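pasting Pseudouridine synthase for the record, 312 residues
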Amino acid sequence: MSQTSEHRSLSVPESLAGERVDAALARMFGLSRTRAADLIAQGLVQVDGAGVGKSDRVLPGSLLDVEIPTLTDPLTVTPEIVEGIKIVHDDESIVVIDKPVGVAVHPSPGWTGPTVVGHLAGAGFRIATSGASERQGIVQRLDVGTSGVMVICKSEHAYSVLKNAFRHRTVDKTYHALVQGHPDPLEGTVDAPIGRHPRSDWKFAVMADGRASVTHYETLEAHRFASLLEVHLETGRTHQIRVHMSALKHPCVGDLTYGADPVLAKRVGLERQWLHAVRLGFEHPDTGEHVEYETEYPADLAHALEVVRDGS
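structre below
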């Protein structure tokens, strides 16, 4: 929960003379006795300008000052237009977007930045699907630090159909990744389970007891310092491509979290991993026909790739 606070002051009435501070606070401000005691313990309550203990007694006419934090739910969707989100396709059932770096798909504890669902709400899109309110219409995710194409469902029918398609791996998810060095072989499959990193809570790793994860890759361009890969995901684990490439000792350029060279990252001007969701293909939930949507590399990735090409 994030917090703002409200300051309130009241004089103690005759009827509460001699009451404990926590009891008087609860009665005067409509709080539970437990919440009142918590506020006193946090030093947010004063009587006549001085701090108090919860069992102190109040006198009539004393001024009771209290800072009451208002709790805001971190999962609340805040409608706001997010600069950089492009609408690739929009119809009655789905909206396909090009997500920029630095935008989360939906609200989550600890994230206070912009979100895709917040942008769609701010732009007037009506998302009518089941699921938690902050994740309505969401059938796939992209990391905050990963850009590219993704689909959001607007209708319950589309949500149900596409959720199943992602679950049964019938969606074509194509990424381009610029990785350090040259994978050997030049094309192949990484089939290695992924789980939470044993020592770093925000990271993932190849773990024997992790969830099944399959990544197919092929080399599109080989340069002196790095290779541009086309990657097809069979599964959709968090950080999957980043973890698998790091496990091959070919981390995504700029991905300092997973072992990338900071000198190379600086040289190509990257402050995030070089990873972009370029293409998404699936059966349209209404027509059943195969549709495919593509996005171009954003400016930072395009620039980094040119630097690598020039260095070959």
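The helical segments are 21-29, 33-41, 116-122, 156-167, 240-247, 262-267, 299-310.
The mean pLDDT is 91.
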